[in-house]
Specification:
The structure holds 2 protein chains of 2 kinds. Chain A is α+β, with helices and mostly antiparallel strands. Chain A has 11 helices and 13 strands. In chain A, helix 9 packs antiparallel against helix 10. The longest helix of chain A is centred in the C-terminal third of the chain and has 20 residues. Chain A starts with 8 loop residues before the first strand and ends with a helix. By secondary structure, chain B is of the alpha+beta class. Chain B folds into 2 domains: 78 residues, Beta-grasp domain (Ubiquitin-like (UB roll), Roll); 85 residues, DNA polymerase, domain 1. In chain B, strand 1 and strand 2 form a beta hairpin. In chain B, helix 4 packs across helix 7. The chains are: A alpha+beta, B alpha+beta. Chains A and B meet through strand 1, helix 2 and helix 6 of A and strand 4 and helix 5 of B.
Chain lengths: 296, 202
């Protein structure tokens, strides 16, 4: 793609989160489009695949990748804070994350090659609101809270309330995703990540499943699931969750799990896979999750 | 740095003919002149292979295009231009990135290392030497990216088992299929560097 084929855009690098919010507020009030750029691993490819051909509006790109307020990981008690501009490589190398939430490094390892892990961010993964986002699958399984900020103030919402449709969300044009909080699973919790794609990593998922479970006295006391690329948005599998939560593990039959999974997914045929194959894999992954959980 | 003659030729070009196709010397001279960039362009000072460079560029320019077309560093290759093949891999502040997915303006103040900056004069970097000894390439197109990736892989201490090397190098595709020799070269370079470090401690 040569330069003249790419639509024009300005670029600013605000030095504080406050100035990002002010800039977003001004532009949103005028109905102008602004792109918040973190790692750019999605944005670049989108521009190459679907460049603006009508010479439409010049966008402004705000580079938010260096803002200290959006960077970093910290733990306070059982709550983990992950800044939105935290990269996959940082997630893989954080000792608390590795010890308490191994799901996140496992997902980060498969999301793309090291070059992509060095630039891609968890916040960017959510911002594009693609159902194929591996990182969002993991956040869904962890029932993360999403933190947003604008000049109107901060707000926090459950990730299950974030999406409104395919690549659409409740995030307003003047809001920036600042980060996530996660209640870290307890010791002895079960965390699961399985990605099915054309390659082990370095390929967008055909289907992936992230799962978190805690079991006490044979009963499932915490259950979180996030499935990738099987619905217009990240799938939270509510029917499967309702079936299994607070139930004795040995009474959760595979046939019931299959029926629940199929009720929760609505996959389509696309360039990467078929709806039929995705339905098949969805059922297999949920069964594998529970089979592994039972056999621990 | 610029000779008086260069300065004169720059002034002539800048005042007269040359538009936005900023050659490096123009950008450098522009910085010296301390003029603000025209609207829509950005001055970006960065270190490339240990040398301070200043570029006056459009914000759409990727690091890969800046290296290849502005700085004449054509070692980093444009393969897929989508972040999938790794042929454009360079190190930014020591970390591997796909230069095709990186805007040059976001590299302000950063240190970029490309294949051209790896050897010390005529002495090859141990990874370059190992790629030669193990015949770790065929056509050579992916090799600059493979070598930069291998340098970081060893530095990050992720060059243990074959499996670990394969995973850490998985972002660099080789259409010729030289993978077994690439893994061998990474191990050879790792051992050579470890041996040297040990010798240094003695």
């Amino acid at each position: 793609m040569s330069l003249p084929e790419l639509s024009l855009h300005g670029l600013e690098r605000p030095d504080s989160l406050g100035s990002v919010c002010e800039r977003l507020a001004e532009r949103a009030a005028r109905g102008e489009k602004t792109v918040l750029l973190a790692g750019g691993t999605d944005w670049f490819v989108e521009r190459h695949v679907a460049p603006a051909t009508d010479g439409s509006e010049a966008e402004l790109v705000l580079d938010v990748s260096r803002l200290p307020e959006l960077r970093g990981i910290s733990a306070s008690g059982d709550t983990l804070w992950i800044g939105a501009a935290t990269t996959y490589l940082e997630l893989r190398r954080h000792p608390v994350v590795a010890a308490r939430v191994p799901l996140l490094p496992a997902m980060s390892k498969d999301v793309g090659a090291v070059q992509i892990q060095a630039r891609g961010t968890l916040g960017g993964n959510l911002a594009t609101a693609s159902p194929a986002a591996d990182g969002v699958g993991a956040l869904a399984a962890l029932d993360a809270t999403v933190h947003l900020l604008s000049v109107r103030g901060p707000r926090s919402i459950a990730i299950s309330d974030y999406f409104t449709g395919y690549k659409r969300s409740v995030r307003a044009a003047d809001e920036v995703i600042t980060g996530f909080t996660v209640q870290m699973p307890g010791e002895g919790s079960f965390q699961y990540w399985r990605k099915v794609g054309t390659r082990l990593a370095q390929a967008i998922s055909k289907v992936a499943l992230a799962g978190v479970a805690e079991v006490s006295d044979g009963q499932v006391t915490r259950l979180g699931l996030g499935m990738v690329s099987v619905a217009p948005t990240t799938a939270f599998l509510p029917t499967v969750r309702a079936l299994a939560l607070r139930r004795p593990l040995d009474r959760i039959a595979d046939s019931a799990l299959d029926a629940a999974t199929q009720a929760d997914v609505s996959p389509i045929d696309d360039v990467r896979s078929t709806g039929d194959y995705r339905r098949h894999v969805s059922g297999a992954l949920v069964r594998e999750f529970f089979r592994t959980l039972r056999s621990r | 740095m610029a000779e008086p003659g260069d300065r004169r030729s720059f002034m002539k070009k800048a005042t007269g003919l040359l538009g936005l196709a900023a050659a490096p010397e123009l950008a450098l001279a522009a910085r010296e002149a301390q003029t603000a960039p025209p609207p829509g362009l950005h001055d970006v000072a960065l270190s490339v292979n240990g040398t301070k460079r200043t570029l006056r560029i459009d914000p759409r320019v990727t690091l890969l295009d800046a290296l290849r077309e502005r700085l004449d560093l054509t070692g980093a290759k444009k393969g897929c231009d989508h972040g999938a093949c790794g042929a454009c891999t360079v190190l930014v502040n020591g970390r591997r990135v796909n230069a095709c997915l990186t805007l040059a303006v976001t590299c302000r103040g950063k240190e970029v290392l490309t294949i051209e900056g790896l050897a010390q004069g005529d002495t090859l970097h141990p990874v370059q030497q190992a790629f030669l000894e193990d015949d770790a390439f065929q056509c050579g197109f992916c090799t600059p990216g493979q070598i930069l990736s291998a340098v970081a892989c060893i530095r990050e201490d992720r060059a243990g088992s074959d499996l670990e090397i394969r995973e850490a190098m998985s972002g660099n595709l080789c259409r010729c299929g030289a993978y077994p020799n690439i893994v061998a070269a990474v191990k050879r370079a790792r051992d050579a560097q470890a041996g040297r470090a040990q010798a240094g401690r003695k």
